[in-house]
Amino acid sequence: MAQDSNQKINFAEAGELSDNSQGVCGAILTLLSIGIAACTFPISLFFCIKVVQEYERAVIFRLGRLLHGGAKGPGIFFILPCIEHYTKVDLRTLTFDVPPQEVLTKDSVTVSVDAVVYYRVHNATVSVANVENAHHSTRLLAQTTLRNMLGTHNLHEILSDRESISNSMQTVLDECTGAWGIKVERVEIKDVRLPVQLQRAMAAEAEAAREARAKVIAAEGEQKSARALKEAAEVIAQSPAALQLRYLQTLNTISAEKNSTIIFPLPIDFLSHFIRKS
């Protein structure tokens, strides 16, 4: 058991080793394969010559072992019949829509959250040799990481700090998928759907907050208006003629409009003077 533990090695690193460890049987099979390709030339060219695009790489296995030198491509490469097979790996950035996940936040609110993950294969050999299906594993890990990350935040943090949560999720995913040859480039939280009852409660709370702010603003306006009137009254009180001039100015303003009825208040002392004469 101790010897087995000491012999544990990464499969991708094993591919960098020399192919001399295949033994005599492997060497014989390789010679036979080369002989078959030579005897069937040029028909064997249709089966032995392969082409990969600029954005692809080919991981070649010979007798179950990775070939020395890692992935091949882009361009033309040659495989031996019967003993070699290859796997194409796409290096372009892929997009994965994380299905809506039911998440219980830190403040015990159930929300439905979905996200988008952008990732690519940065090491074709590792992505084939170290994991059975790198793309499927990355997608499952993205779903579980989304639930775990959002479960440690309150609702208001999820709604307001999406960017920081996305960056944290990207860092966690990138650390885990590095051993699979996957590079997570970006994570974006698309939508956070709240229950209908919670939406109504939040709308009522927001409306009440707006009404409270409106009342405070109106009260401050009334306070400033009262102070201005107090100051105006103090100025007018310093000159008795100022009040009469203000009164005449008000009458002038009213008379500028058509179809207006103006009532002139008369002092009681003025009327009592005519009463005494009669």
Automatic annotation (TrEMBL):
Residues 47-206 form the Band domain. Gene3D superfamilies: 6.10.250.2090, Band 7 domain. Pfam families: Band_7. The keyword Transmembrane applies. Its main location: membrane. The chain crosses the membrane at residues 27-52. Belongs to the band 7/mec-2 family. This is Band 7 domain-containing protein.
